[in-house]
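Sat 14:20. Reprocessing the chain from the morning session after the first attempt stalled halfway. Input below, unchanged.
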Amino acid sequence: MARRLAEAWPGEVKLHSGPAADQVRAAWDACDTLVCFLATGATVRLLAPLLSGKHSDPGVVCVDEAGRHAIAMLGGHAGGANALAGRVAEALGARPVVSTATDATGGTPLDSFGADLGFRLADPANLARVGRAVLDGEPVRVVADATWPLPPLSTVDGEGATVIAVSDRAAVAADLVYRPPSLVVGVGASRTAPAEQIEALIEAGLAEAGLAAESVRALGTIDLKAGEPGIVEVARRHGWPLVTFTAGELSAVPVPNPSEVVREAVGTPSVAEAAALLGARAAGRDAGLVLPKRAGTMATVALARLVPRGRLVIVGLGPGAEDLRTPRATEALRRAAVVVGLDQYVEQIRHVLRPGTRVLSSGLGAEEERARTAVELATAGHSVALIGSGDAGVYAMASPALQLAGADVDIEAVPGVTAALAAAALLGAPLGHDHAYLSLSDLHTPWPVIAGRLDACAGADLVLCLYNPRSARRTAQFDEALGIIGKHRAPDTPVGVVRDASRPGQRCLRVSLAELAADPSIVDMRSMVVVGSGRTTTIAGRMVTPREYRWLS
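Finished this time. Tokens:
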């Protein structure tokens, strides 16, 4: 089993051999995480003498002799054992066993709260107490200097509430404080400016502004100073990325304290202030100076704070079956603090959402409203998931959302299994060659346009996947569509009609084009109609469109 993990994760795994106690001791100091193929009792006895603290010990996963369970034994969150248990289980076909309280209840773990945003926990001393308050439903309040795309957290406001703060301010009255990566330090320096002077200026500037060094996300300067030893050394000491900008980029930034002396020297009237602002704007949707430039004998520094960018994830839920929703879609739903969607789709995934998730659902016909709401909330800085069935980019919510969204919000699309693919899998292999998707709904597209496209695709001998084919009130268009197709296809052309693919009540029919034309009532709005091409045939009751590989001819 250890070799199987090494093969599954090349370059990540080191295999140990020899007595188990020697193996554990050797791996303890050398590895980030351990997988022990031992009984849990034996693993506990081997680990006990090595333990020092939850934030420094490696994560440990224990796998039983039969490979049935991958148990997160130690360092579930901080050590990465919970995530590792899932990976091990997937690789070995085992079941992950995770017992940490927040994971067991489906909540957001506080020791990794905002970790994907770059948050740092200022002091973990109260972590267990605050986590217990959240789990017990006690009054807990989250306060933040700005609107960040936070994960969902089940909180209840009330008297004497426990306070969780997201703040870059040095002095914060809260039970638990997270430092967001909200600050960028701009630096200008003369040649051979010592790192000690630059560092002292930065520390003095942070103290003057009352800001925490843990919230500095980057050091910014002009590209001419990209290799300046003092600047490079300060960045290295603090683990801050060094970002650089050209004189042209910097000179285009309005600043409160431009200098003609600096312009003559490097081609821009500002380095520190402009670099701080540019660095912060690159990471957020806007930025402002929180400390104008402060000068030393050989260097200047300035501080800028970014306005966080919100997140909009457009999620395709698949055709309806739980096991046809992708793991990435489930992860996105659990990360979002706000979920926006059609009421019937929301009900499909409500059980997946974490406690504290805000749900905004609406009925049929409110697509534009849902798209606008999701974009507005994400633009305001929140973490939002906009859901749609199948693939959200195919006749679903991605298009109206992207028409409304600007460049000041981060957007990700999570693909899903489309209705056409789900139907095709049930019918056989009708999409083995070129095919076209067409919607017969004339709610947003004039029918003559749809009819023209249908005629062109049918004339090109493409397999046709017809979405929204027929409703209780809209029947004439489907009859006309069959007539258009009939001009180009033989009466015995195979046709598949799949209703509620992968959902309860699923129905799958295979008929000829002539049979469908004789009884079009078997089709409704919840049906997907797949019309074969001139090459599509039926083999053993299954629709097949030959790929026409040369080796088959």
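The longest helix spans residues 195-209.
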